[in-house]
Amino acid sequence: MRQASATAHRPLTAWLHRQHGPVNGVVTFDRRHLYILPTRSGAGFGVLLVAMLLTSLNYNISLGFALTFLLAGIGMACMWMAYRNLLELAVSTGAASPAFVGDVAVFALNVDNADPAARIGLEARTPQSETATLTIDGDSRGTLPLRVPATARGRMKLPRVTFSSRFPFGLFRVWSYADLSLVAFVYPAPEPNAPPLPQVARPDDAEDGTLSVASDDGIDQLRRYRTGDPLHRIAWKHSARTGRMLSRTGTTPRQPGCWLDWDALPPGMDTEARLSRLCAWVLAAGDEFEVGLRLPGVALPPAQGAAHRRACLEALAVWPERRAS
């Protein structure tokens, strides 16, 4: 008997949870994809109306009939207002902020209201996230940030989002689903108290006699004086301090490259521990000097800057998915 009941409910469950994907990147809540049911308060309100109607019939109370039908009309108006609060809303994807394992990834959803009436008390949530609320004025756009816990590194796809509303009095709940294509990177959790970065020795003198000492203004690099160098290029203070003639090169000193190598880590570390340490080193490098990343099948040459740091973190997040071509 129980198995037959479960079999009978399968078509209904499949109908309720059918895919509602975007068309041209936008999910629109039309009449075919909106569902409405009374809440617990709405069910209690309905029971109260039935009791009032029976009492009025039993005792022939005219004012009881009037009050019952008035409240019933208010309930019907609430049902229509709740339904209309979600009708024809358009939802599209915004930005997805990356996160580290143990933090939360934020998925931004754009909600467009093309109707002159405001949409009040909109709610959105996924099975893993907290409920986000939004109120939109007429003919305007709002943004709903969904905070989803990041439990595993890699590419995290936005789960199915449930949009709902209980406006105006919480007697009815109307809801719909949105299946949006939005992905956030989840980086490995950086190792706490990680050892210092592998250091690269900087020679005092390069082959061309260049010194890794900045000039007084912090911009020019210094090198040994060469015959024919103009007098205004001579760094007199540094020459007097070091006891040899130095000239300004007019170029910005470049920090040395540093390789963060998977194979250079202790052999006893497991995969996630290695990725966590490399992640901590990438963050520790900042923008001060160049770092390169070597993983099995992946090699990112030394560079610096936010774009390179993001590329390194993404390579750590999806490894071993990304392989060098």
How is this structure best described in words?
By secondary structure, the protein is an alpha+beta fold. It folds into three domains: 1-187, Immunoglobulin-like (Sandwich); 210-248, no CATH class; 258-318, no CATH class. It has helices spanning 2-16, 40-59, 62-86, 236-242, 271-285, 306-318, and strands at residues 26-28, 35-38, 90-97, 99-100, 104-113, 119-125, 132-136, 140-149, 154-157, 161-165, 172-178, 183-187, 210-214, 221-224, 246-248, 258-261, 291-295, 298-303. The strands form five sheets. The chain has a five-stranded antiparallel sheet. Strands 1-3-5-8 form a four-stranded antiparallel sheet, with no helix packed on it. α2 (40-59) packs antiparallel against α3. It starts with a helix and ends in a 7-residue tail after the last helix.
Short description:
The protein is an alpha+beta fold. Helices cover 29% and strands 30% of the residues.
Main features:
alpha+beta; four-stranded antiparallel sheet; Immunoglobulin-like; 325 residues
Q: Average pLDDT across residues?
A: 83
CATH architecture of the largest domain: Sandwich
- Please summarize the sheet with the most strands: 5 strands, antiparallel
Q: Which class do the helix and strand fractions yield?
A: alpha+beta
- Strand order, largest beta sheet: 2-11-10-6-7
Number of helices: 6
The CATH topology of the largest domain is Immunoglobulin-like
Low-confidence stretches: 201-219
CATH top level of the largest domain? Mainly Beta
What does the overall shape look like?
A: elongated
- What portion of residues is helical? 25-40%
- How many domain modules? 3
Q: What is the CATH superfamily classification of the largest domain?
A: Immunoglobulins
